[in-house]
Amino acid sequence: MSVIEVGDNRYGKEAIRLVRLIRGAERHAVRDLTVSIALEGDFDASYADGDNALVIATDTMKNTVYAFAADGLDGRDGVDGSIEAFGRRLAEHFASFGQVDRATVRLREHRWAPIETGPGPATDAFARDGSWTRIATVSAGGDSAGGGSAGGGSVGSIAIEAGIEDLSVMKTAKSSFAGFPRDEYTTLAEAADRIMATQVSARWRYAIPDIDHDALFEAVRRTFLEVFAEHDSPSVQASIWIVGRAILERHPELAEITLTMPNLHHWAVDLRPFGLDNRGEVFVPTREPYGLIEATVRRV
Amino acid sequence: MSVIEVGDNRYGKEAIRLVRLIRGAERHAVRDLTVSIALEGDFDASYADGDNALVIATDTMKNTVYAFAADGLDGRDGVDGSIEAFGRRLAEHFASFGQVDRATVRLREHRWAPIETGPGPATDAFARDGSWTRIATVSAGGDSAGGGSAGGGSVGSIAIEAGIEDLSVMKTAKSSFAGFPRDEYTTLAEAADRIMATQVSARWRYAIPDIDHDALFEAVRRTFLEVFAEHDSPSVQASIWIVGRAILERHPELAEITLTMPNLHHWAVDLRPFGLDNRGEVFVPTREPYGLIEATVRRV
Amino acid sequence: MSVIEVGDNRYGKEAIRLVRLIRGAERHAVRDLTVSIALEGDFDASYADGDNALVIATDTMKNTVYAFAADGLDGRDGVDGSIEAFGRRLAEHFASFGQVDRATVRLREHRWAPIETGPGPATDAFARDGSWTRIATVSAGGDSAGGGSAGGGSVGSIAIEAGIEDLSVMKTAKSSFAGFPRDEYTTLAEAADRIMATQVSARWRYAIPDIDHDALFEAVRRTFLEVFAEHDSPSVQASIWIVGRAILERHPELAEITLTMPNLHHWAVDLRPFGLDNRGEVFVPTREPYGLIEATVRRV
Amino acid sequence: MSVIEVGDNRYGKEAIRLVRLIRGAERHAVRDLTVSIALEGDFDASYADGDNALVIATDTMKNTVYAFAADGLDGRDGVDGSIEAFGRRLAEHFASFGQVDRATVRLREHRWAPIETGPGPATDAFARDGSWTRIATVSAGGDSAGGGSAGGGSVGSIAIEAGIEDLSVMKTAKSSFAGFPRDEYTTLAEAADRIMATQVSARWRYAIPDIDHDALFEAVRRTFLEVFAEHDSPSVQASIWIVGRAILERHPELAEITLTMPNLHHWAVDLRPFGLDNRGEVFVPTREPYGLIEATVRRV
Questions:
Q1: Residue C79's pLDDT is what?
Q2: Contacts of B184 in chain D (CB under 8 A)
Q3: Is B93 a catalytic residue?
Q4: Pick from B9-23, B260-274, D145-159: least confident
Q5: Which CB contacts under 8 angstroms, 24+ apart, belong to A74-82?
């Protein structure tokens, strides 16, 4: 007779929505975050025995995020206001519970920019810029020797991942796809000149601990865009390599980067039935199916 | 015994996706549209008799959009490249069929901006700007005396509506809500200082026929943002009036504007259980339920 | 100099989510609704003067829905538990405010069915049935002679619309599309046998005031499905007519029905490049573009 | 100077939509699938050298799915018509390419049921049943010694995972949450009787290779529902354990099951301001934030 047991498990709170308004002397600033918390650790009794004595309520996690936001995220007194720093503080808090082996905090920042008015940027009115989303994941290792309250255990290793999502880009030249093998199911024509469109998701790890997260995020984003715009692409795979390698070369702080690039196909419309030529000008952009290419580029 | 008949009816093609690449001598430009077509007219036989003799296939509508895109939307030779002009050409085409009483074309333009690189804006690489969407609706009246082919009938009145959607804005000061009546179901506290956040949808009609659609759209958008940022708001209703009136005052070309503003509530978090004060700094942004305020402001 | 004024306007609360648990002696029942409220009336001062004295707060609307749910929706004591009856009670409440000319309540009911277990249906556990959504819209006319409190005005005409949404159906035989006109932009082949798939939205009005809403809804839904399954369809238009007419014929309580049917195209895949025949067996279902056909069938 | 290289990578085609119509002698049947393919293997040259010689085009993957659907999925001649069997055939095909180390096929089946009519179930008309989605993931190991064409390599290990998604269930009794630790950020009250609502995602592996996939899927689904309905739940964690263990106990074919259960909170509305008691009858169902609990229950 086999024995049945609890295996890998985690729990937490997802989709905690938070707007932190920073009331500066001269102007307001808005931080708009979605935060998720997940814990792993000594929680088997909550499964197998229905014993909640060590189960930090997910409602408490939510409260903690709001409480920490009260004196965080404002960058005052030279304190790091990045989502990475906020996530680290939360991860370390939850990892300090004795029953927690690992606390993982995922953050997404939705961007608001001051509205441009005649006299300059508004001090207290903002427009949402939906062009991309900055993300971060921070996890802190705990020490499960301790008891059931914060501070009962010590906090161990910290892992920080930064990234960007929801960034849609398109190349209308310098993109081809040819030389691929042809089998009995292959009908795709070779393309010397095609549109390449993608909605990028990038995540990277830093090789060194103490960095300026805001500055590096912005630098990596710019490098991505610049190299994406300038390079010649023989495939999405090659684009990932060219862009990823350039990012690692220009930013020695990064240890590795993982790029996920859906290939959002743009099919040229056949206009010949209407007596027209399509000289690479009229396309149907499609959502499904799509290619999906994902790779890590790393420093050895 | 009652008689049963077909009443109001319309049909057409929705969600025609189109990317038009304009291959300029020095740089490319991208037009990314979603187009919908709807026809009203002499279609009773298709319902009551199953007779398709006058039913322009919706697949044909789609083909027509792509064919017209081949020599449209590029603004070449001083031709109007606006979505309003493209929509008008399509609406007049379909209205010219004898069996069509009214052809309505709705258009949404998704924005792509050249990627900024060191040497300047890229000539053939673009990033999606999801901050707002320009929309237009063009309808053309037909003359149902004619037969079943394009050109068989004449085209009558044209109605053009322009607009913007997906524009999220927020005021973090100069917004209040007080003085409302209290009944047995009222628990909302009066707010002298609240966050007002909304995702605006605006649609307007022009009073005069021949205008520069691109320039006016941009001017109206700027006025909206500027007045939204600067005004004092005692309610979303009053904001619609103040912003709408300012737009009509500054842009005499407009006959009326309809503004739809969901009130996306931001609730201040009660931090007192955690021994903290919330001085208007920590909020939960919410998606549901939401207020919805819609009004037309018009010139008499 | 032109005068600028407020034109048509309305405001209210959208997306009020409500679960009403009915704790019966032997078994529970779950009502899961999304409710929206919209008011029209004497609200010009809230726009033009920023005067909220007559503005019933949308937060109060939400509270009212929850308060009314406490002793409604349970069908106890022979009281009508339908969404139509609940909507009517809410509409009449808001229409009784003196400043309200018309109160409109829209309701959607999300379905939960008892889980089947060995001993029979569970008494207190439910599974969501996402196959369709029942909807209703109830509006009550007010009498704007009165003052600013509930009961201050009298309630006038009531209009009730019932309906169904999110119902996806497909015919794999007895569907064709032929005999349509061909112009220079027509490439669609005539189809003697095609898949017709649609996601129906239907809304109907009753000719008589006092009916059993639950029973009639169910009867209309069954007629729709039965006639949809059995009829021969030469077009989506004809299907709307055949189904709509049958519903009016079989259910004399209905005055008219409006059917909206997107045509969700299923394209047969060309398998000849792979040495295979496609005998109407392998299709690509598509989401965009899609045909959209909408018509009212009514009793004269 | 550090060296930069390609690390983990995979590519493929996502969201291949397929409807397979089975034209039986007496009645039709509809299979509606979304299929995704992902390959890992000897693809470094496509990244680092822009060499596509070994890159099976994702368009070819799509074609292969449609071609294989022509003589699959119909269950004719006693052949297994399950998505697991279809996925396996596809995975083995792609794994047989010499450059492929692992081919992974993910499948989702969208359900259509014959419409009930007076004379019985329709033979050629169907309604979508959106109550849950069956899923499967099949991966096949390849042997990268071979060349660049199908059949050039041999196929190795097969891993099959079955599962269910989009299944929303709710318990209105026998659910509590108490005994959890309280810290300075805890405000949640203990609940002896609460609504527990979740949208389950379950994935399981079989311990033995040759099974009746359709029968076992249905048996596991029924056990899930039955135990979910009947058990007493002191927490979502305990529910996962109780349900997961029961599934493993009753179905010895399963080696392990992973259950993901968001806790979709239903908050009791405070009706006291309106002079009403809420005796566990009026709730606000919420979408965000939500708890998320995930665990594997396995046989040792």
A1: 85
A2: 274-275
A3: no
A4: D145-159
A5: A74/A20, A74/A22, A74/A29, A75/A22, A80/A213, A81/A31, A81/A214, A82/A136, A82/A213, A82/A214, A82/A217
